[in-house]
Write a structure and sequence with these properties.
By secondary structure, the chain is α/β, with parallel strands linked by helices. The chain contains 18 helices and 10 strands.
Length: 417
């Protein structure tokens, strides 16, 4: 192994030692953080189960952002409380077995020592964050504006990217539904192991113009190994086969398998628009930044480089075919991490053309003191995205209804437009 992939092979022992430390209750407590929202709690439950499967069972849960007081005259505030109560009413049973703690929803960002101190002072608002002023408005188009641009511009591949928890899956799904409603055939897929498109769309029947899949790393690795070994057994002796099996146990095998599956999904764009909800870190950026190394490694392992792999990077670098949508919240960490993500993409020759600011209180008419204070803190990040980072920006306001199911997304896009 050489080049950009060489570091992966040496990580196996480190991974094993790390799991040993993490699973030792005397050394490690793992704190999972979730928002009081159905989708976030669902993801925490999934993560908790997967961690237990590898022996990391010393867990506790922190529910971040419990809204404890609100202005009952404010519709946004009342809906905010109702949505949280509904999510907590269906709190997953497996999570109830963990020690559970909560942090209140506050109007100010939890950055800096002084702000963190305020977190422990009940019923205190920072004076500079007491609500939106009359001149605080920043005008931004809706998500439907980006969907119209994708539809009329003839885009064939649309990728949503961003930090975990910002709503990439929901945005990708909404874009797919919007394009179907504009008469296109669409394939929606995900490379993010944390994403569950089945949960997002529920059990309702989907229109024939929309198909859904996911790239399962475990499944792709097994299929890749079987393909390589089947081909190799025709010309390798037993010693050679043993060496190849050991080589395929390397961590880079998963990267190669996912890379190839990703390329095959993108290749479907010749028949339909492909919308891809991508993992927040790991596979996607690594494969884009190291494409030439993957080509060499695939050729070494299988003797060939599939056409879909050869076409992948030129296609993703072609702005006539591909749009990259960076999804963020109007908060410090998501925006800063999204900015770094954009830099990495540009290094790979890919320029994002849309940013979507999701779940924005700033874009609502709330007058609740806490929520409007939070909205005011969003303004700095909305302006940074619009004026410094994004070529084109859309905003999705916080809405009371969680977008689960095709009809809910269709209804949301209709209102948004």
């Amino acid at each position: 192994m050489s080049g950009a992939l060489s570091g992966l092979a040496g990580k196996q022992d480190l991974y094993g030692r790390s799991v040993d430390v993490l699973s030792d209750k005397e050394q490690t407590t793992l704190v999972m953080v979730a928002r009081p929202e159905a989708s976030s709690l669902y993801e925490a439950e999934r993560s908790s189960g997967e961690l237990k499967e590898i022996g990391i069972s010393n867990q506790l849960l922190l529910v971040n952002g419990i809204f404890t007081s609100h202005d009952q005259r404010d519709k946004v505030s009342s809906a905010f409380v109702s949505r949280q109560k509904e999510a907590l009413r269906h709190f997953p049973e497996t999570l109830k077995q963990l020690p559970v703690f909560s942090v209140p929803f506050v109007s100010y960002p939890l950055t800096g020592v002084e702000n963190l101190r305020h977190l422990f002072k009940k019923n205190v608002l920072l004076a500079t964050h007491e609500g939106k002023g009359e001149n605080d408005e920043v005008s931004l188009p809706s998500l439907d504006a980006s969907i119209r641009a994708f539809s009329s511009g003839g885009k064939r591949v649309i990728l949503t990217m961003g930090k975990g928890g910002v709503g990439k899956t929901t945005v990708a799904s909404s874009i797919a539904v919007g394009l179907v409603e504009k008469g296109h055939r669409v394939h929606l897929t995900t490379t993010d192991p944390a994403a569950h498109l089945e949960y997002t769309f529920g059990s309702a029947t989907l229109p024939g113009e929309l198909s859904i899949s996911s790239i399962d790393p475990k499944r792709e690795v097994e299929a890749y190994k079987e393909k390589v070994l089947t081909k190799a057994c025709l010309h390798l002796d037993e010693a050679g086969m043993d060496y190849l099996r050991e080589d395929l146990a390397s961590p880079c095998t998963e990267e190669i398998a996912v890379f190839q599956a990703f390329a095959e999904e993108v290749d479907k764009c010749e028949e339909e628009i492909v919308v891809i909800d991508t993992a927040p870190t790991g596979h996607t950026l690594l494969l884009l930044d190291s494409a030439e190394e993957y080509h060499k490694e695939l050729s070494r392992s299988t003797g060939e480089v599939p056409q879909s792999v050869q076409r992948l990077l030129p296609r993703l670098r072609n702005p006539e075919e591909t749009s990259v949508v960076i999804v963020t919240l109007a908060e410090t960490t998501p925006v800063l991490e999204a900015g770094r993500l954009q830099t990495d993409l540009q290094r790979a020759g890919i320029k994002p053309d849309w940013w979507v600011i999701n779940q924005s209180l700033y874009a609502t008419p709330t007058t609740d003191p806490v929520l409007s204070g939070k909205a005011r803190t969003e303004k700095e990040w909305v302006e940074k995205v619009k004026n410094e980072l994004a070529e084109q920006t859309a905003v999705i306001p916080w809405i009371s209804e969680e977008r689960i199911g095709y009809e809910a997304m269709k209804r949301f896009i209709s209102m948004d437009g």
